[in-house]
Amino acid sequence: MLGILGVLGGLALLIYLALRGGNILIVSLLCAAVVALGNGLHLSDALMGTYMQGLGSFLQQFFLLFLFGALFGRIMADSGAASSVAGMLSRKLGAQRALLIVIVATAALSYGGVNVFIVVFTVYPLGLGLIRDANLPKRLFAGALALGSGTFTMTALPGTPAIQNMIPAAALGTSATAAPVIGCVAAVVMFALGYWHLTHQAAKARANGEGFVPGAADVVGSPGSEEAGGPHWALSLLPLLVVVGVVIGTRNLQPPLAWVTAALALGCLAALVLFYRRLKTLGGTLGQGASNSTLPVLNTSSVIGFGAVVASVPAFQSFADFLAGLHWSPLVSAAVAVNIMAGLMGSASGGLRIFMQSMGPGYVAAGANPELLHRISAIASGGLDSLPHSGAVITVLAVMGLTHREAYKDIFVVTVLVPLAALTVALAMALALPW
After folding, report:
1. Rounded CA gap, 105 and 145, in Å?
2. How far apart are CA 94 and CA 89, in angstroms?
3. Is the torsion defined by CA of 334, 340, 344, 348 positive or negative?
4. Distance of alpha carbon 239 from alpha carbon 271, whole angstroms
5. Are 378 and 353 in contact (CB under 8 A)?
6. 328-349, pLDDT tens digit by residue?
7. How far, in whole angstroms, is CA 232 from its chain's centroid?
8. Cα gap 310→62, rounded to integer Å
9. Which of 60, 221, 227, 379 is the one with CA 20 to 30 A from 166?
10. How far apart are the C-alpha atoms of 150 and 312, rounded to whole Å?
């Protein structure tokens, strides 16, 4: 019991301090120590060993992706290319549809197989201009990006290449299109509720006189920058198309992360070839882009380190065993277990992977329909995964220069409450209809 209290206490403290604006690097280390002490681990082993191994593993895997992503965003912003595309979209579709444009753009990228981190870096400079033209607060931009990339395209839509859809397919022997009707209904619920919330908040912001305020590191060209001498919007789209094209074209090649990173590097190269004359100082742009990558990757790595400590303690396995022993409907039990695992890990894929490895086959052996279990588990992984200590949440906030206090409320609604509502609908369908 003391060990479980240590895990829950460390997690609660991490969430509280993150919401209070605490430095994630320090907070994650402190909370990992709480988990370790509550479970009788030696601090040096937990922090210098397990924590640093988790942090280092993520840093080793994703540092170059974050670096090239930040460089790409900075080149597109400094050259005026991002503002040119944003200006075109505002003119063609109307600035009042800025949130919808961001949601659709991020959803299209993520459903096309583009990693969520790449989506953040590529859409941010483009969306910044749209949000500026619409005079909306950046917190709603964060919510729209999270809704488009981290909800229905990640867990619900049949055929999505997201890892949250691939993990149950590999474990259960199902296809990526498992339970398509339930998945489509859940996706519609997520989109509709999330978009309603964001548009409602936009109306409230306008009524309260709350508008766009750029961050210290934001580079936002003037509206209609193309007319002011910026690159043509069609030319400005080419680097984005290079990134997306390479990602989609190499989606079946190994190792996938290397090709994703290469896509961003090629996007940077294409942007430099096309726009280097428009950069005031090439060294300044590259230097600022590199600096912009360090905080997001370190913050995210530190939370992964905390999750590694949590996953290493005996109390975590005891908690998993307790969830597996719940005498509920297998689908309801799975939905609860995956949500809790994802919440503890701060990761949809991390929680889902642990569930499928330790519990998934047992549920099928007990009579659960593999296709229904696949879809319900996938949807469930996208609920409590987005608590304040989530690596994806921290990355979005760090890239946008926002704090939890400023922007987490809207992210919480669209990536936690809305997916939980969709999960409830999906469960009701799975239990009520004769599949």
Report:
1. 9
2. 7
3. positive
4. 5
5. no
6. 788 998 899 899 888 887 888 8
7. 31
8. 21
9. 60
10. 27
Token pair 């009042």 in the structure block, residue: 96
Give the integer Cα–Cα distance in Å for 165 and 160. 7
Please name the residue ranges forming H helices in 20-137. 24-38, 43, 52-78, 81-93, 98-111, 116-134
Q: Tell me the residue range of the domain where 149 lies.
A: 2-432
**What pTM was estimated for this model as a whole?**
0.77
Range name among 37-46, 264-273, 295-304 with the lowest pLDDT average: 295-304
* Per-residue pLDDT tens digits for 214-251: 876 676 655 544 545 678 888 988 988 888 788 778 76
Rounded distance, CA 431 to CA 283, Å? 59
Looking at the structure of the chain, the number of domains it has is: 1
Neighbours of 378 (CB within 10 A): 29
pLDDT digits over 348-383, tens only? 887 887 788 777 777 887 778 999 999 999 999 999
- Residue 343 Cα distances to 256, 300, 386, 412, angstroms: 26, 15, 7, 13
Q: How far apart are CA 422 and CA 413, in angstroms?
A: 12
